[in-house]
Design goal:
mainly alpha; 2 domains; globular; 19 helices
């Protein structure tokens, strides 16, 4: 009873502004992952099937541009938000983001689609630091851990529900409706921002000093070869991760018969509804990832909380690599599902510990700065992963009909990442880890 009462008190300790940004995060991430769960399929699908018919290599180029923007823009947008206001920056973010989704729903030429998605990424990149900043300003030591736990939960809940429920329904009518859904899902947040959200800043920072600080911090980080090397090594795992939104989806559509999974799911659904006709499709890869994290993240975090960071990171990377490797040994539907689940467990094992591992690399008085630049793994992982995955898929899967070789190349990247981190820890990490 005491524990339940304590949890209830913690929940009620959050101000209204906290819950406002949680709602914003849920709808923004739901819209984003809803689109990203099928974007690479829509772009390569033949026009007769409702798609745009772009080549996989050209789609890889798009993804290698828009996804890095989501990781690199928050550096600048955070400084801008501190000077001009969180609310004003959110107005810009939601306007540009919603416009980007809307224009993508209308565009059919490659250049216009590319520009529209850059517009979307620009808005999303400005959105990311403001929500975390608002939560940080609306929590304290007594409820910060729970507050950020709810924040991460809302991200995965959006990534789970939107692709599961909305995407299969909308694409029955038109693929363009998916982008219109995202435009509405982010556009209505303008009203929430205008009528309900309150800027949590108590004072403005000097814009010139803020921007100077951004560049000074960048120089500080870029001079630390040890930190940059760690980021480069770790980004190898994220080359694997970003295949979940590209080559994994193409492989699913073109080489895996999901009939056994469909039959089993429909058998279960038949106890609740008449004549179910559920089908596993590309969007459900994102659903698997999000659901696995929702169900297992707390258990996994508790299990590894006292484990050494480097050991846990390597274990997670090896587990994720195993998940990818399962695609190389079989095209069975259940093997595919198991591979996606195992990869997701590996991701949730490795990545939280990566944040703590950054603390081993950072100087004691510069930890916050280094944590802010740790996101560079995503810039490298997505920037390389999009183009590399697309080009290798065309070569090994389509031209040479050697899908196993294709997936084994990513297994090698995963193993190289794990070995690289191990060697890095032995020779370059300050000996402060127990």
């Amino acid at each position: 009873m005491k524990s339940s009462s304590s949890f209830k008190n913690s929940i009620t300790s959050f101000p209204k502004n906290f819950w406002v940004v949680i709602v914003m995060e849920f709808f923004e991430r739901g819209s984003y992952y809803g689109v990203m769960s099928v974007l690479s399929i829509y772009l390569v699908l033949r026009p007769s099937e409702g798609g745009l018919g772009f080549s996989k290599e050209s789609v890889g180029l798009i993804k290698s541009v828009i996804q890095p923007l989501l990781y690199i823009l928050p550096i600048l947008s955070g400084a801008i938000a501190e000077q001009y206001g969180y609310r004003k920056t959110l107005f810009f973010s939601f306007t540009v983001m919603s416009l980007g989704y809307f224009l993508t729903s209308m565009a059919t030429s490659y250049n216009l689609v590319f520009l529209s998605l850059i517009c979307m990424a620009l808005g999303a990149g400005f959105f990311k630091p403001i929500i975390a900043g608002t939560i940080a300003r609306n929590t304290d030591e007594s409820n910060s851990a729970l507050g950020f736990g709810i924040y991460y939960w809302s991200i995965n809940l959006g990534a789970f529900l939107f692709p599961l429920i909305l995407i299969p329904y909308l694409k029955q009518f038109s693929w363009s409706y998916i982008f219109l859904m995202a435009a509405v899902g982010t556009g209505w947040l303008l009203f929430l921002n205008f009528f309900v959200y309150k800027d949590p800043r108590t004072e403005k920072s000097n814009s010139e000093n803020a921007l100077q600080k951004v560049f000074a911090n960048a120089i500080l980080v870029l001079k630390d070869y040890r930190f940059l090397l760690m980021i480069v090594i770790y980004s190898g795992f994220w080359i694997l991760y970003f295949q979940m939104f590209d080559s994994v989806l193409w492989y699913l559509k073109e080489h895996i018969d999901m009939a056994p999974v469909n039959s089993s799911i429909n058998w279960v659904l038949s106890f609740f509804i008449s004549n179910p006709n559920w089908k596993f499709d590309a969007e459900h890869v994102t659903v698997i990832n999000a659901l696995t994290i929702i169900v297992l993240q707390i258990a996994v975090s508790n299990f590894v909380k006292n484990k050494a960071a480097i050991t846990t990171m390597i274990s997670g990377i090896l587990m994720g690599t195993l998940g990818i490797g399962m695609l190389a040994i079989s095209s069975n539907a259940w093997v595919f599902i198991a591979g996606m689940i195992i990869f997701s467990v590996g991701e949730m094992t490795a990545h939280p510990k990566f944040i703590s591992y950054v603390g081993l690399i950072a100087p004691p008085d510069k930890k916050a700065i280094y944590q802010g630049y740790a996101f560079l793994y995503g810039v490298l992982g997505s920037g390389i992963g999009g183009i590399l995955g697309a080009k290798m898929y065309v070569l090994f899967v389509e031209k040479l009909n050697m899908p196993s070789v294709f997936w084994l190349i990513f297994v090698i990247i995963g193993l190289a990442t794990a070995i690289g981190l191990l060697l890095f820890n032995i020779y370059l990490t300050p000996k402060r880890e127990n």
